[in-house]
Amino acid sequence: MSAYVASLVSVVGINLILALGLNIITGFCGQVSLGHAAFYGLGAYTAAYLAKLGAPLPLTLLAGAAMAGVIGIVVGLTSLRVRHDFLAVTTMGIGFVFLGFVRKQKWLGGELGISGIPGPGLDPVPYALLIVVFAIAVTIFSFWIKRSWMGFTFDAVADDEDAARTVGVNVSTYKLTAFGIGTALAGLAGGLYIYFARIILPDTFDFVQSIAILTMVVIGGTGSVWGVFASTIVLTLLPEVSRAAADYRLLIFGAMLMLVMRFSPGGLAGLVKRKPA
Amino acid sequence: MSTPMAPLARIEDLHISFGGVAAANGVSFTVEHGEFLAVIGPNGAGKTTALRMVAGILRPDSGRVFFEDRDVTGLPVSARARLGLGFTHQIVRPFYNFTIIENVMLAAGHGQTVSPWRALTSRSRDAAREKAQAILERIGLAAQASQSPRALPLGQRKRLEVARAIALDPKLLLLDEPLAGLSSAEATTMADLIRTLPGQGITVVLVEHNLGEVLRIADRLVVLDAGKVLAEGVPGDVMARTDVRQAYTGVV
Fold first, then answer.
1. Within a domain: residue B174?
2. Inter-chain CB proximity A177 and B98 less than 8 Å
3. How many domains does chain B have?
4. What structural domains does chain A harbor?
5. Mean per-residue pLDDT for B76-91?
6. A163 to chain B: nearest residue by CA?
């Protein structure tokens, strides 16, 4: 594997963890989030800060995931109060608050971010494989959730919260669980990213990034693990194989989102099977 | 610990107002083990409001709800459902993305959904499927098990709502106008169906407008008028009272 291929594999793996994490919140549990990149950033900044202090990789990854997950649960509390469009706007706001905060913090490097992050202690190829192992584990975990009673219950919460309550489901607890798991995975992705990039900039975790992750989930078919898996790989590699696709990335993502919404709200998975399983 | 003689549920002095209008103005009654109790009254008497307060969908401004001698006034709907206090909506609320049997399975597997951790570590749906299948057979929906609720006519959707409530193993089931919107033949079938519940160990409180069916199937009546209990007792006695007839017809 060349260094170039290793970097592609690393980015695909990180995006898979991000998209599958958001899929648990939005796809499984039905809670819209337009601020997923903020949790990616939270994980990255936490891990980078600790790595520069000399903390080892397992600790920084764990801390990044934990930080993002805890803040994710706090943000998830808003989902108990507001639904649908209002939740979308609120989570979008979280993303802006995160960036606004980070950009003004001298100890986090302000606009310039954090550079000089130590390496993972692995060469690029083994490190890419480590990311792949994490991505596969997250994929398996997603399937596990989907087929467990947790997935069944998430489906019910996504379908009709009030009906879920009458069958004894504590809707709040399940929503917070979805936010906690999904955002912790984003934090993990952030931690993995820092050892790959060795420098982090605030703009990496902006609103466009949140929308890019959401696009991968929606185009794959919200809720479908295979669909999200496939669309994430395609959408991540597309700008790499085609210069034009890279230049017009936002335009292409936006157009695809609109086409999917118009012709197949179930995403790619919906084209294969009308009811996403 | 409740003694055999203690009532299953005690509703004490419930008050609630919406925008200054009192929908419940001191509603009190008890529910005995194994009975079929119907709450009736003219439009706007506060029947559904009272039932929704017992179920936990509405919080009363004051007053208390006791279930098996336990004060459940502050508990949310899901916690009450787990204690055995079930509820069916007047406007049916199936999970439209589930099949009929999946709707019932989720309720039948309530032991698996008690906490996210329990849910995450439980995989097999066989036991819940078996239990749901048995309930669907009892309720007459077995042939439609793998269909979407969208495919069902209203009468059968109402049955599904009851099937899902039964799957939670309730001790007390609150039914909010299960006959509303049904044809007279469908209403009779539905009334016959819910009449069998006390025999299966499920005490029933029914709110219903269809007086003919209510008088046919209820053991006892509670009559509400203007947010208060006007009368209660066996149907024959209650309906013979002048004040009850007046509340219904406006004339003596």
1. yes
2. no
3. 1
4. 3-206 (1.10.3470.10)
5. 93
6. B93
Using an 8 Å CB-CB cutoff, list chain A residues near B91.
none
Q: Residue A114: phi, psi to the nearest 5? A: -115, 125
The domain spanning residue B60 has which CATH number? 3.40.50.300
Q: Residues of B near A (CB-CB distance < 8 A)? A: 55, 76-79, 81-82, 86-89, 93-98, 102, 105-107, 109-110, 112-116, 118-123, 125, 164-165, 167-168
**Do B93 and A167 count as a contact with CB atoms less than 8 A apart?**
no
CB pairs under 8 A between A and B: 99
Residue B251 confidence (pLDDT): 57
- Do A150 and A164 contact (CB within 8 A), yes or no? no
pTM of the entire predicted model? 0.91
DSSP-based three-state secondary structure for B40: strand
Residues of chain B in contact with residue A153, where contact means CB-CB under 8 angstroms, are 106, 113, 116, 119
Answer whether A24's CB lies under 8 Å from A175's CB. no
Q: Spell out a b/e string for A136-164, using b for 16 or more CB atoms within 10 Å of the CB, else e.
A: eebbebbeebbebbbbbbbbbbbbbbebb
Mean pLDDT comparison of A135-149, A244-258, B233-247, highest-scoring range: A135-149
Mean pLDDT across the stretch A211-228? 90
How many angstroms separate the Cα of B7 from the Cα of each of B16, B29, B34, B68? 24, 10, 10, 7
The token duo for B140 is 């007459």
Q: Residue A1 above 90 pLDDT? A: no
> Range of B176's domain?
9-94+170-249
Q: Using the beta-carbon criterion (under 8 Å), do A149 and B82 form an inter-chain contact?
A: no
> Using H for helix, E for strand and C for coil, what is the string for A176-211?
HHHHHHHHHHHHHHHHHHHHHHCCECHHHHCHHHHH
